[in-house]
Design goal:
The chain is α/β, with parallel strands linked by helices. It has two domains: about 1-15 and about 70-120 and about 130-220, 3-Layer(aba) Sandwich (Rossmann fold), CATH 3.40.50.1000; about 15-65, no CATH class. The protein has helices spanning about 15-25, 30-35, 45-50, 60-65, 75-85, 95-105, 140-150, 165-170, 185-190, 200-210, and strands spanning about 1-5, 90, 115, 120-125, 125-130, 155-160, 175-180, 195-200. The strands form two sheets. Strands 3-2-1-6-7-8 form a six-stranded parallel beta sheet, sandwiched between helices. It has a two-stranded antiparallel sheet with strand order 4-5. A hairpin with a 2-residue loop joins β4 and β5. α4 (about 60-65) packs across α6 (about 95-105). About 40% of the residues are buried. Residues about 210-224 have low confidence and may be disordered.
Length: about 220
């Protein structure tokens, strides 16, 4: 079982992107979230427009999130499970790659995780993004494309997320886990998407350890 996870608000306690946008953006960044959720722009275009509003130096952005970010309980055990199974643990994130890398190094787990995120480069005119290294395909965004790519290799995927951009990836995965009380949990209930609502990552490990070779049919939509 390959574990694929969002980062902001899922593996860590806050959405570092929203935190930095709230602190440093020069413009109405939330407008682009609304456009994306209505299907009027792609995830990639949403991120480009939002990140160009942040014009602070790289180290200042890292320092800003460093003191307010912690990892969700249960990550170490989930990584150990993935290692024992001989599978990769992959992060697919719309966040800032240098922030993710810093936080993973801080926890000393950078060598246990594959990170798929756009390349980001802070400039005086805003942060620029490069999506060229991310999975491509027919899905609505690179997160669901990543899940499809792994499943195309004959592997089963467990996906963990909390935001609207994770919805299509949850649908593509064999098993979906969503953070309880998140926007993604609300959407999954609304559209009847099978998932398990969780608080800590240890719940993912417990389910996968007991799931054996069970398939998507064993996953049921759960109410809050």
């Amino acid at each position: 079982m390959e574990v694929v996870s969002d980062f902001d608000g899922t593996l860590v306690n806050i959405d570092t992107v929203e935190y930095l946008l709230a602190q440093y953006s020069n413009g109405d960044w939330q407008r682009y979230d609304h456009l994306y959720e209505r299907g009027e722009i792609s995830l990639e275009e949403c991120l480009r427009q939002q990140y160009r509003m942040i014009r602070e130096p790289k180290q200042k952005l890292i320092d800003a999130v460093d003191g307010v970010t912690s990892f969700r309980a249960g990550l170490d055990d989930l990584l150990a499970f993935s290692g024992r199974e001989g599978n990769s643990f992959t992060i697919v994130s719309a966040g800032l790659d240098f922030v993710i890398s810093h936080l993973l190094r801080r926890k000393s787990v950078q060598n246990q995780i594959v990170v798929l995120a756009p390349r980001s480069r802070p400039t005086s005119r805003g942060i620029t993004l490069d999506f060229s290294r991310l999975p491509r395909g027919d899905s609505s965004n690179f997160k669901s494309n990543a899940v499809r790519s792994i499943r195309a290799k004959g592997k089963r995927v467990a996906y963990i997320g909390d935001g609207f951009s994770d919805l299509e990836a949850i649908k593509e995965a064999n098993i979906g886990f969503v953070i309880k009380g998140s926007r993604l949990a609300e959407r999954c209930r609304k559209y009847g998407v099978p998932c398990h609502e969780i608080v800590g990552l240890e719940e993912v490990t417990c389910h996968l350890t007991g799931a054996g070779t069970h398939g998507r049919g064993d996953v049921v939509a759960r109410s809050a």
